[in-house]
Design a protein that fits this description.
mainly alpha; elongated
Length: about 80
């Protein structure tokens, strides 16, 4: 990574990458906190009331959970297999 070389971190590239990616995740969550909260609340309301107004938000949350689960399972499989 260019930033770690500029800062002279050398061998600590992995730690630097984890730190910067975690900071990026927190920044994204902070920026979109209102939208994320609204999606979660609308999904819960849809599950309780089945009102069509909240249906698309609920389906979007389910899609995001499915994608995250797929990525997690694939990553876990690749980390544990003896693929050469």
């Amino acid at each position: 990574m260019i930033a770690s070389e500029i800062l002279g971190l050398g061998e600590q590239v992995f730690t630097f990458a984890i730190l910067t990616n975690t900071a990026t995740l927190f920044a994204i969550l902070f920026i979109y906190r209102n939208d994320i909260g609204e999606l979660i609340i609308n999904s819960i309301v849809y599950l309780k009331t089945k009102h069509n107004r909240y249906r698309s938000d609920s389906h979007f949350v389910i899609l995001i959970r499915y994608i995250a689960s797929y990525i997690s399972d694939t990553t876990s499989y690749m980390a544990n297999c003896n693929c050469s």
